[in-house]
Write a structure and sequence with these properties.
41% of the residues lie in helices and 21% in strands. Helix 2 (26-55) packs parallel to helix 4 (75-91), helix 6 (109-126) runs antiparallel to helix 9 and helix 34 runs parallel beside helix 36 (1096-1104). Strands 28, 29, 30, 31, 32, 33, 34 and 35 form an eight-stranded antiparallel sheet that branches. A seven-stranded antiparallel sheet has the order 8-9-10-11-14-12-13, with helices on both faces. A six-stranded antiparallel sheet has the order 15-16-19-20-22-21, with helices on both faces. It is of the alpha+beta class and 1121 residues long. The chain has eight domains: 11-206, no CATH class; 209-261, OB fold (Dihydrolipoamide Acetyltransferase, E2P); 277-334, no CATH class; 346-400, no CATH class; 408-523 and 530-565 and 610-644, no CATH class; 650-822, no CATH class; 835-935 and 1084-1114, 2-Layer Sandwich (Yope Regulator, Chain: A), CATH 3.30.1460; 945-1079, Galactose-binding domain-like (Jelly Rolls, Sandwich), CATH 2.60.120. The chain contains 37 helices and 36 strands.
């Protein structure tokens, strides 16, 4: 092509043009011309949408189209977006750079020729004429007229669609688009000339080059050119994440990343939702303006007024905070008020100054405190820099220094708290060592010196600490908080002491409350925990939960980087009274859990006894952070909750219909065996601390079962058919429910399963492995999710009248039953229902009964006649070894891939312990093709995790600087100290011995908390057996004292011992470290001999061969059956 443009074209266009230039066949040339036209439209569309995003305007109709079509975008959709976005910008007085080219009336000769030529060509084809060139030539003799780009592309898309779909019905007959030499000769030149002119006319567009955002810091974008890979810097404040694509020319930067361009803005999404409420925005906005005008009678909007308007705008109008501020500014300007927003509250400035001057600065805590004064993160950063400048101190030095400062009263309170902690821990140690119960009440708790008296004192000391800490932290005089303890537990020798604190006079009652607990294990938990006794007193429990979740998600997003520094802020699994994930990890990896499954589960800092003993002040830090974190959250939740209380919701209007949908499941649940699930079976295996936490939180929502068998109500926001027996001390729960989504006023059908796989290995862990395997299921309009111990099936109820939950339920329960059967896992009586499994009726039973007496003579152990299809999709008799290798030999039927098979199986449950048998099985399979060696998966579930913080690993070192810098202080979470060697040479080392060998794939490394000592280069050694060591050499360490090294090894390695050897360092050789690893587990192996059976005669033949095949296996050494 001939392009007379000064700027280089984008790479994607250059490639297409290059392909076009190389094309020799005329058909290929037209393909590349059509590709080029499509690429041009997409490029123009992304450019104009970038202008639209940059303008900060919102077109509801356009963004509705993003939501509707964003996952499946056709060429026509791109053209439509180009048309509508440019038209909208022009209407809003923000015309596109190419407005005139798109919509004007232009002398574009080659485009006009193409439009005319296509019209003539189309007419010729539809009338069966083949003299295309002649007819086009005649048409071009007429007035060509003016044209714009959109008119040209409207015709271009017609050609493109006819080529893509060559057979079309026109006036009752099918017309086929020609692909002859004459056709290509008549069309290609006009199309090529037109596209060439389009490219040449778009000089302004080509000035904008494609870049990738490399970094976005403090109003400065660093962009990497896709042309030459060179960086440029552009001053721009924008929420552009790293890695997205942008257009840039001079100082103008426009989004070009499709994911970002098609992301409907929060404001637009909220407005779209409001459309379903008859677009009440305009009238309500006018009322809001009147309220703002009244609030500005003192020339300013107070924080309380601002919070109210933001919440009202959000819940009733779908307006963002920025839109509310814009509305306030609009009203203020009409009133002649220049700045209606107050300066940062002086009280907060005093708090910041105090933290700076006393070296008690904690940035995250101060950010949270700033919430009480309406100070966002950006404003906080400005305030901090202004105050450090005013106080003539180095801001970096302020961030590094941290000291504790107490008044005499605060010191006394803290001493009382630690005395309570030590007493409870002492009782726990006594109980564990002597096996004696400490729970028997023998004396008066008011009598000095009795154990009951000290128990009461522990409760009192904890409450005293909490109350005085509240008085210090409640900076807002209007904020009233109170404390509560359970009087019957005080002095009666519970294995813990606790205190609830909650905001008074809020509609959320004590469901939104904090909790401080000390345990006899020496651990402590501080953070969110509801007081369940208040749940019935709420006006709408389900709504409050939904609003709380929305604010939790927003908070987690806003403070994501700060929260990552606190991995011990954890989400408790309320069903199992334990925790596996940090709050930030659970929120980032499993947002679906919060959307659909979260039920006011505890979110608390959990500190182990070792951490508290090493650094008691973590209790103060965690309390202060938890209070400031949740205080603002609770207030915001209540504002939105009040605003939404009187709205109408689907669950209220359709209770009877929802119940009927769930009751309709009962027959199929009975058919698959669930209705007979026991309510409780085996004795608890919970550790003592979990039992204590069970008792502490025993007042949960006691939702009664109605006569129709359903739990739930309009009040709690869902109805459910639920089974929740305790198995081995932990609930094994399956729930079928229809639940209200209040923010979207939608209903969801959910199937939710919870187990305790990370706590109980015998029954719950195999169930968990099954659940994980089902994450890849697919069903129309349904989504499947897994996290450790949890599985969810979610389906939006589009039309409740027509909605039938049974097809999805049958699909999932069949998949669950099949997975359980194949893995020998029992799940609440669940059974297979496929008719094919009963195909042979009693014939297979009779055959096994007939052959077993002769087979019994081959074994010293007794034959077990299990014959349960849920055990491996098999109908087997077998003999079990009863030895450590855990192997068995079985015979009977197996159903696999829609085929019934008969045969013999030798199963080894541990490939490591059964190595001798494994070798013989392998040899047998090699020499006899009828036998197959099959791996049946890992012997146990293992999840990768950071391994040092929660293990009994033993840490040693070449030397320690003193007792405060020993090897065990090298935990990455240690904010006070670290391992530091006693000598400043390259002969020092730090080593960890893990409880068992693990597969290691990553390392995270820090230096000293004060930043003055860190390792810049190191070697690493590892061993499985303490004898044979491997070395990984010359790793680059830390660049400075406050950075974190996150290192992924080129190849994961197995190790029981890991040694780090500092080679070069600043200050002293010392580290804080952790490793990402997973447990090494053996495999389960089987040697199988199967033959297909399709009738009773084939079955009889197969069964007759069992004895011969079993004798072949009996020859194996070490079989021992």
């Amino acid at each position: 092509m001939n392009m007379n443009i000064a700027n280089q074209l984008p790479k994607n266009l250059e490639k297409t043009i290059s392909d076009l230039a190389r094309a020799r066949e005329k058909a290929a040339k037209q393909k590349y011309l059509l590709d080029l036209g499509e690429s041009l439209v997409m490029h123009l569309c992304s450019f104009v949408l970038g202008e639209y995003k940059e303008a900060g305007l919102v077109s509801i109709e356009l963004e509705k189209s993003f939501l509707k079509n964003g996952k499946n975008v056709s060429f026509g959709i791109y053209l439509g977006w180009l048309r509508e976005s440019s038209k909208f910008l022009n209407q809003q007085k923000h015309p596109s750079e190419i407005q005139d080219l798109l919509h004007g009336s232009n002398e574009l000769l080659e485009l006009s020729k193409f439009v005319k030529s296509y019209g003539a060509l189309k007419l010729a084809v539809e009338n069966d004429h083949t003299n295309y060139a002649e007819l086009i030539s005649q048409a071009l003799k007429n007035n060509l007229g003016k044209v714009n780009l959109l008119e040209f592309f409207d015709v271009f898309i017609q050609l493109r669609n006819r080529v893509a779909h060559p057979h079309k019905e026109v006036k009752g007959k099918v017309v086929s688009w020609p692909f002859s030499e004459e056709y290509f000769d008549a069309t290609n030149p006009y199309l090529e000339s037109a596209l060439n002119q389009v490219i040449n006319e778009l000089g302004k567009i080509w000035e904008f080059r494609q870049f990738v955002v490399d970094s976005n810091e403090q109003g400065m974008l660093t962009l990497i050119s896709e042309d030459n890979n060179e960086p440029i810097e552009v001053a721009k404040t924008a929420d552009y994440p790293e890695g997205i694509k942008v257009f840039a020319a001079n100082d103008t930067v426009l989004l070009s990343d499709w994911k970002m361009l098609l992301r409907a803005g929060e404001e637009a999404v909220e407005k779209i939702r409001q459309e379903e409420e008859e677009l009440r925005n305009k009238a309500t906005v006018e009322d809001l303006k009147h309220s703002i005008e009244a609030a500005l009678d003192d020339q300013q909007i107070s924080l309380e007024e601002m919070n109210f308007f933001e919440s009202l705008g959000k819940t009733k109008l779908g307006l963002s905070k920025e839109q509310i501020k814009h509305l306030i500014m609009e009203v203020a300007q009409k009133m002649g008020i220049e700045d209606p927003f107050p300066e940062v509250d002086k009280r907060f400035i005093e708090v910041v100054d105090h933290a700076i001057t006393t070296k008690t600065y904690n940035e995250f805590l101060l950010k949270l405190t700033g919430q009480q004064y309406g100070v966002d993160n950006e404003t906080f950063d400005k305030v901090f820099l202004e105050r450090t400048f005013a106080l003539n101190v180095d801001p970096d030095e302020v961030r590094r220094n941290k000291v504790l400062q107490f008044t005499l009263e605060e010191l006394t309170d803290f001493q009382g708290l630690m005395a309570a902690h030590k007493w409870l821990m002492g009782m726990g140690v006594f109980r564990h060592a002597t096996k004696e119960s400490i729970f028997k009440i023998r004396e008066d708790s008011y009598k000095f010196g009795t154990k009951e008296y000290w128990h009461r004192t522990a409760f009192a000391a904890l409450e005293h600490f909490v109350q005085n800490r509240l008085n210090k932290l409640c900076l807002d005089e209007d904020s009233e908080w109170d404390t509560k303890q359970n009087n019957w537990q005080i002095g009666v020798m519970t294995g813990y002491a606790w205190c609830t604190l909650y905001p008074k006079n809020l509609p959320s009652k004590k469901i939104l409350a904090l909790h401080f607990s000390l345990y006899s294990s020496g651990g402590a938990a501080i953070g969110y925990l509801p007081d369940w006794k208040d749940y019935k007193d709420l006006d709408n429990y389900g709504l409050l939960l939904n609003v709380f979740v929305e604010h939790l998600k927003s908070f987690a997003m806003e403070y994501a980087d700060d929260l990552k520094k606190y991995p011990n802020l954890v989400l408790w699994d309320s069903l199992n009274n334990n925790t596996y994930y940090s709050f930030t990890e659970s929120m980032s990896r499993f947002p679906w859990f919060y959307d659909h499954c979260y039920g006011f589960d505890q979110i608390q800092f959990y500190h182990k006894v070792e951490e508290i003993i090493a650094n008691p002040s973590v209790l103060i830090d965690s309390f202060d952070i938890a209070f400031n974190l949740f205080k603002g959250l609770f207030e915001a939740v209540n504002r939105d909750y009040r605003n939404m209380l009187n709205d109408s919701y689907l669950i209220t209007e359709n209770e009877a219909l929802i119940r009927s949908k769930l009751v309709s499941l009962e027959d199929l649940l009975t058919e698959v065996g669930l209705s007979g699930a026991p309510e409780e079976d085996l004795v608890s295996e919970q550790p003592a601390e979990e039992e204590e936490r069970d008792k502490e939180n025993q007042d949960s929502t006691d939702i009664q079962v109605a006569d129709d068998g359903l739990k739930g109500s309009v009040h709690v926001g869902y109805f459910a058919r639920e089974f929740k027996p305790k198995v081995k001390g932990y609930p094994l729960c399956v729930s079928f429910q229809i639940k209200q989504d209040y923010f979207n006023n939608e209903l969801n059908y959910l199937m939710y399963i919870s187990c305790a796989g990370y706590l109980q290995p015998e029954i719950h862990e195999p169930v968990e492995r099954i659940l994980e395997s089902l994450e890849g299921l697919s069903f129309e309009n349904a989504r499947f999710y897994f996290k450790r111990s949890k599985f969810l099936v979610q389906c939006k109820v589009e039309d409740l009248e027509r909605f039938d939950p049974r097809p999805l339920t049958v699909f999932f329960l069949n998949a669950l039953a099949e997975a359980c059967a194949k893995s020998y896992v029992s799940f609440l009586g669940l059974k297979l229902t496929q008719p094919v499994l009963s195909r042979f009726g009693n014939a297979v039973v009779d055959a096994l009964e007939e052959i077993n007496p002769s087979l019994q003579s081959l074994f010293s152990n007794t034959i077990t006649c299990e014959r349960n299809w849920m055990k491996g999709y098999r109908f087997l008799d077998y003999v079990y070894s009863g030895k450590g290798v855990a192997h068995w030999l079985g015979w009977g039927l197996e159903f696999q891939q829609d085929q019934m098979m008969a045969g013999v199986v030798l199963h080894v449950g541990d490939s490591l312990k059964g190595a001798q048998l494994m070798e013989q099985m392998h040899n047998k399979a090699n020499i006899d093709a009828a036998w197959k060696l099959v791996t049946k998966g890992e012997a146990s579930l293992n999840d990768p995790h950071w391994i040092l913080g929660n293990s009994s690993a033993v840490m040693t070192s070449s030397s320690d600087y003193n007792r405060n810098y020993k090897a065990h202080h090298a935990l990455i979470s240690n904010e006070k100290t670290y391992w530091c060697a006693a000598k400043q040479d390259d002969k020092q080392w730090w080593q960890v011995e893990l409880p068992e060998a693990m597969t290691i794939s990553q390392l995270v490394l820090k230096g000293a908390p004060h930043g003055k000592s860190y390792v810049t280069r190191f070697n690493l050694m590892y061993s499985v057996d303490k004898k044979n060591w491997q070395t990984l050499s010359d790793f680059n360490g830390l660049n400075d004292g406050f950075s974190t090294l996150e290192l992924t090894f080129e190849s994961a390695f197995n190790a029981k011992l890991i040694k780090i050897l500092p080679v070069e360092f600043v200050g002293w050789p010392g580290i804080r470290v952790d490793f990402w690893g997973k447990k090494i587990v053996p495999s389960k192996i089987e040697l199988q001999h199967w033959v297909p059976v399709n009738n009773e005669q084939e079955l009889a033949t197969a069964v007759a061969a069992f004895e011969h095949n079993i004798k072949e296996l009996k020859a194996f050494k070490g079989l021992g059956l």
